[in-house]
Design brief:
Radius of gyration: 16 Å
InterPro entries: DHFR-like_dom_sf, RibDG_C
CATH topology: Dihydrofolate Reductase, subunit A
Number of helices: 4
Protein name: Dihydrofolate reductase family protein
Pfam family, one: RibD_C
Number of domains: 1
Largest sheet: 8 strands, mixed
Mean pLDDT: 96
Strand content: 25-35%
CATH superfamily: Dihydrofolate Reductase, subunit A
Length: 193
């Protein structure tokens, strides 16, 4: 089975977006450098961020996200983000009308079926879980191995929480990676078992 990683950019006060889903300056670090992170020509980060993020992106086979994220991104126009092979969407609604059935997106009902599908598709590679409601559910179910945070130097005050649906204590190990980039601090924690 592939490693399961919960990941997102986050404010210092623990939010991944404002209530209206606007991430504000949380992604400023993705355009604050001079090293291209992908082939888009848009994402340019510091060398430290590139050295931390690019190898991680290269190991991700599948991303699990909720239907809300899928909807606000317009399904990434049918192309998984960051070069990921597949996206598993947790939803209780049907596949969007007119959706291309050949697009590498898989719509499932619940986190258990999402994780089973993601692990099947990943073939031993990394499964990434988007932070927020679905990510919190996966963490609460004990299915996350690692937590990654790209901490932006901003306070949002309120909004969508990184660990949205987590309502009980969960212990993480000490951070095993701390990388300072331009406009970001990258952190990595292993989940204590």
């Amino acid at each position: 089975m592939g490693r399961v990683v919960m990941n997102a950019s986050v404010s210092l006060d623990g939010f991944i977006a404002a209530e209206n889903d606007d991430p504000g300056p949380l992604f400023e670090w993705l355009v604050s450098g001079d090293v291209p992170l992908d082939d888009s020509g848009v994402l340019k980060v510091s060398q430290a961020s590139y050295d931390h993020v690019r190898p991680y992106w290269d190991e991700i086979a599948v991303t699990i996200a909720g239907r809300h994220v899928f909807d606000i991104t317009d399904g990434w126009d049918g192309k998984p983000p960051s070069g990921v092979d597949h996206v598993v969407v947790v939803t209780h609604r049907p596949t969007p009308e007119g959706w291309d059935p050949d697009a590498p997106f898989h719509f499932v009902d619940g986190i258990e079926s999402a994780m089973a599908k993601a692990q099947e598709l990943a073939g031993g590679r990394t499964v990434e879980v988007a932070a927020g409601d679905v990510g919190g559910q996966v963490l609460a179910a004990g299915l996350v191995d690692e937590v990654r945070m790209d901490v932006a130097p901003v306070l949002l005050g309120s909004g969508k929480r990184y660990f949205s649906s987590v309502v009980s204590e969960h212990l993480l190990e000490d951070p095993d990676v701390v990388v300072q980039g331009s406009r970001v601090l990258h952190l990595r924690y292993q989940v204590r078992r």
